[in-house]
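Supplementary Methods, section 5.1.

A reviewer requested that the exact input to the structure prediction be made available. We therefore reproduce it here, unchanged from the version used in the analyses.
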Amino acid sequence: MSGPTDGAPFGRRLARVAANERLGAYNVLRVADPAMTGVLPGQFAMLAAAERWGGGEDERPFLARAFSVARQSGEESSYVLEDVGPGTRRLCELRAGDEVWVLGPLGRPFAAPEPDAAGMRRAILVGGGVGIAPLAILQDSLGADATTVLLGFRDRERVPGAELLRGAELATDDGSAGHRGLVTELLERELVADAHAAVYSCGPAGMLEGVRAICERAGVPAQLALEAGMACGFGACFGCVVPRRGGGYLRVCVDGPVIDAAELEHVEAHAGAPE
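The structure derived from this sequence is encoded token-by-token as follows.
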């Protein structure tokens, strides 16, 4: 597995927005950035608008936000955004030709499934809300035929996000698409039918904790892409730590964001993508 900053420029750089496309409740921000070429599924970048990156009467600057790379095509990297506050709102306002500060690629990626004594495990991708982002590039890497995709959304407005992946089975809280209920209920059903699998997941903390607990009970390996408030992305500020099973802490930005579920006693409430 690659280190957190292997091949990444040490310092932020200006890149140009190629497009900012609406996808239901989400925006897909496409950034032309040759330095992100070769990013691995699960890695992320810290993004900040080059202009008007502030709020309030004194224009106090916001911290850069961490976003998983959702797709890479040539020199363009895509990120999934949702307007959940002043910082993400400013990024959602960007248009083609605007400039954005980028720091990355950062973090440890997903590891491809490995065969065991019984053969190759099938890959089950479980995502919720904006947590679909790193699963899209992971599916690109593994191939649609090699993955089972389970996605959960709050409501109909967010369901179009499923278009980023192929062949997804859906669950919605309000029953507007697919299974009415939790995406973890779909996961339990899949593992009852065939537990010879490896699970890859990203989403809200509650969903990730459900995935972790289900996989632990079933004896199924799982990798969880966590999210936490980050100030630096390089592990210097210790603002994104989560407790490690057996004691100590993991820094989401450098020990993750992808962490083996077996390293966690539980997923803390702050360590998931916004719902």
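Residues 1-5 have pLDDT under 50 and may be disordered. These observations are discussed further in the main text.
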